[in-house]
Specification:
The chain is α/β, with parallel strands linked by helices and 758 residues long. It has four domains: 67 residues, no CATH class; 289 residues, Rossmann fold (3-Layer(aba) Sandwich), CATH 3.40.50.740; 213 residues, Dimethylsulfoxide Reductase, domain 2; 113 residues, Barwin-like endoglucanases (Beta Barrel). Helices cover 36% and strands 16% of the residues. The chain has 32 helices and 31 strands. The chain has a six-stranded mixed β-sheet. A six-stranded mixed β-sheet has the order 27-29-28-31-23-30. Strand 5 and strand 6 form a beta hairpin. The protein binds iron/sulfur cluster.
Length: 758
């Protein structure tokens, strides 16, 4: 990939922040909102964001409070997301006539999206150098022609990003399955798939078991591999409420993230004055990939504490009555290899004992986690390990306790509930087939990594993306980009210009869609959509802003257009009818999706909570009919001499692959992104100093991968562990480096070496 303009020319490094939010968050939010949307639109959008009759934030999946909502029911990054979508700049035929695909490929990801909202259906034809406009009718016909022309439906892949609404997602999976394939990868494959696999195997359902109230009522909240201050900022309000009521917080993260240290709540005078709430009582700066070993050691210490004072630490009644496999797990952790634990975690035994004492002394514990846990080769086993501890203490299915994987994309959980899954279970396919009168394909489809392989190996030919920026989000960027360029057709349903529009198929389509803030008048009526958050709350969302352009169509309308052009009235499905009134879609959802009967009415009545047997009735729908303890080998990640463990992460001015700006205020980075956070000990040992520029090189069985020119930033991180932003470092993560069982890219533990920059 050609070298891009040097965005880092004005890079500056300052001391990291010791708190999150505060007055600065308000200033940044307002400046971005007014600067990008203007006063009137900014005011309307921010006052309806996350309100009961408003629109749902398109950023993370943090739940809205059920009762009272603040007038400003959003965080700084929610305001950035709304501003980024509501920007007044547009990208249309004139822009594309001026900029060739080749020249656009020279630009950075931040620059591309910053150009504005897409307004016209555009096509780049085979051999073409520029995108050119076409009509919606032509666009749908072109997709239909390509899909009908394939030798087998499995030559097509239907990718979904977590912003897609429940209605669009339900119809999209129906389109793919009525067409004949289960190739339905989604962004969850890259993030919480390890969670879904681990929880389904232990408690019988791949979703978190807590409500917002449980967090407020907990007396210990464990936050593992998560940076809530940037990725789920309203979670800080819940942590503050819990702290106010006496809760303790145990944070486990290689980096001392500002949002784990202190929260200056801008909704409170104390917070605006900088006298906010101290958060983590204990921060364990663990060595990357040391979490499995840590939780085995904690299990070991809890067992010892229980044996020393029976009935005071473990919940024997729950263990005996509702679980299986306890004895095997207990035997495994009873005989723990301390040296291995210390090598794996980089912690002292005293630190681990102190953490275990926090759990032993707590009565209501919530375990929260995110990518710092899920993107490792042994992520499924790691999650199962803290599930073991939660089960041993009976921390599931009772108030103030439970498992809380925090989803990073606003409706990624809803999309999965609607059937966006390459491995959909038979009970779902049976219900879908019964409802629509056809037999859906049963063979599992491609997940995200398998999709890249299929395009690389020319087994797949057509790629359709419902939102997202697949090329930038996926690991092994060069391989993924080349695979996409090898496709016959790529179709991107998007709001803004991004990398995936440039590393695209021989024929490439861009189909501009409405955003969450915008009014949806499809079918000549005011339409609403629905989403499901991290805590299984389903609710409606309705945008009010005037669309960025008159030609924009809703996700539902576009999916139906493609379906009608591809399938006609196959199986008697009347796709056009769905666009007249989305209640027609919701009625079908109610007939197919477990726990959604009466969907339309329940949404009309303010929304509802999806069923969760372990949370609701301490029922475990595992094959054993019980919650399952697991036994996993204790692993110490081996790192060759002179190599380091790299974790890829977001800056505070970023949401997934969307780069809102070039600052990372919490980590002291200004006007730049190509930085590596590294400890003083590693700088000294490797003969570098703060400010040096290096290339990052990862080593894999199939060779080396290089990401050039990063500035070294001395930082508080465990020895041997470094961190840098994605997507800039995604080229270093080999496609085949995936988590066992779940296939999630191992982006949190990439073995790299540093070389003086070339
Ligand atoms: S916490 Fe997440 S969902 Fe809520 S406003 Fe912020 S970014 Fe949006």
């Amino acid at each position: 990939m050609p070298s891009k303009p040097d965005e880092d020319a004005r890079l500056r490094v300052r001391p990291p922040a010791d708190h999150a939010a505060g007055l600065k968050a308000v200033q940044v939010s307002m400046a971005r909102a007014v600067g990008q949307m203007g006063v009137v639109k900014a005011t309307r959008n921010l006052l309806t964001l996350n309100q009961a009759d408003g629109f749902d934030c398109m950023s993370c999946a943090w739940p809205d409070p059920q009762g009272h909502r603040h007038t400003a029911e959003f965080c700084e990054n929610g305001a950035k997301a709304v501003s980024w979508e509501g920007v007044r700049d547009t990208v249309g035929p004139a822009f594309f006539a001026e900029h060739s695909v080749a020249s656009l490929s020279e630009q950075t990801d931040h620059w591309l999206e910053k150009q504005g909202r897409l307004t016209h259906p555009m096509v780049r034809r085979p051999g073409g150098t520029h995108y050119e406009p076409l009509s919606w009718g032509e666009a749908f016909a072109l997709v239909g022609e390509h899909l009908r022309g394939l030798a087998h439906p499995d030559e097509a892949v239907f990718y979904t990003s977590g912003r897609a609404s429940n209605e669009a997602a339900f119809l999209y999976q129906l389109l793919a399955r009525a067409y004949g394939t289960n190739n339905l990868p989604d962004c969850s494959n890259m993030c919480h798939e390890s969670t879904s696999v681990a929880l389904a195997g232990t408690i019988g359902i791949g979703k978190g078991s807590v409500t917002l109230e449980d967090l407020h009522e907990a007396d210990l909240i464990v936050v593992s591999g998560q940076n809530p201050g940037t990725n789920h900022p309203r979670m800080l309000t819940a942590l503050e409420i819990a702290k106010r009521d006496g809760a303790k917080i145990l944070a486990i993260n290689p980096l001392p993230e500002a949002g784990l240290l202190k929260f200056d709540n801008p909704q409170k005078a104390r917070g605006l004055a900088g006298r906010g709430t101290e958060l983590a009582d204990t921060l364990l700066q663990i060595r990357s990939n040391g979490d499995l070993a840590l939780w085995q050691a904690i299990g070991h210490l809890l067992l010892k504490a229980e044996e020393a004072a029976p009935g005071t630490v473990l919940d024997r009644a729950f263990i005996d009555g509702s679980t299986t496999g306890f004895e095997a797990w207990a035997a495994h952790v009873r005989d723990i290899d301390r040296e291995a634990v210390l090598a794996a975690t980089g912690l002292t035994w005293q630190q681990i004992e102190d953490a275990a004492a926090m759990l032993a002394g707590a009565k209501r514990i919530v375990h929260c986690w995110a990518m710092g846990i899920t993107q490792h080769h042994n992520a499924v086993n790691t999650i199962k390990e803290f599930v073991n501890v939660a089960l041993a203490q009976g921390m599931i299915g009772r108030p103030g306790a439970g498992l809380c994987p925090v989803r990073g994309h606003s409706n990624v959980q809803g999309d999965r509930s609607m059937g966006i899954w390459e491995k959909a279970p038979d009970f779902f396919l049976d219900a879908l087939g019964a409802e629509f009168g056809f037999d859906p394909p049963r063979e599992h489809g491609y997940d995200a990594a398998a999709s890249v392989r299929a395009f690389r190996d020319r087994k797949a030919k057509v790629f359709v993306a419902l939102g997202g920026n697949f090329v930038a989000a996926m690991s092994d960027t060069e391989v993924t980009a080349a695979a996409m360029r090898g496709a016959e057709l790529t179709v991107q349903i998007s709001t803004k210009l991004n990398r995936s529009h440039l590393d695209a198929g021989a024929t490439a389509l861009i189909l501009p869609t409405l955003g969450r803030t915008e009014q949806d008048l499809t079918g000549g009526t005011v339409q609403r959509i629905t989403v499901e958050d991290s805590m299984s709350e389903v609710h409606a969302s309705r945008g009010r802003s005037k669309p960025a352009g008159p030609l924009l169509r809703s996700e539902v309308d576009i999916v139906c257009g493609i379906a009608a052009a591809t399938l006609g009235d196959r199986h008697g499905i009347d796709w056009r009818a769905f666009t007249t009134d989305y209640d027609r879609i919701r009625d079908r959802i109610g007939n197919v999706v477990p726990g959604c009967s009466g969907y339309t009415e329940r949404v009309d009545n303010g929304g509802f909570t999806m069923p969760h047997p372990p949370r609701d009735t301490r029922t475990f729908t595992t094959p054993e009919g019980r919650a399952v303890f697991s036994v996993s080998p204790l692993e110490v990640l081996q790192v060759p001499p002179g190599r380091l463990i790299l974790q890829t992460l977001r800056s505070h001015d970023q949401f997934n692959t969307t780069i809102y700006g070039l600052d990372d205020r919490y980590r002291g980075i200004k006007a730049g992104r190509r930085v590596v956070f590294i400890s003083k000990a590693d700088l000294d040992e490797l003969g570098f100093v703060d400010g040096d520029h290096v290339d990052l090189v990862s080593e894999w069985v199939d060779g080396e991968r290089r990401a050039p020119r990063f500035r070294l930033v001395e930082y508080s991180t465990p020895k041997g562990c470094v961190a840098a932003y994605y997507p800039e470092t995604n080229p270093l993560v080999p496609l085949d480096s995936q988590a066992a069982e779940s296939g999630t890219p191992t982006s949190k533990a990439v073995i790299v070496r540093l070389e003086p920059a070339t």
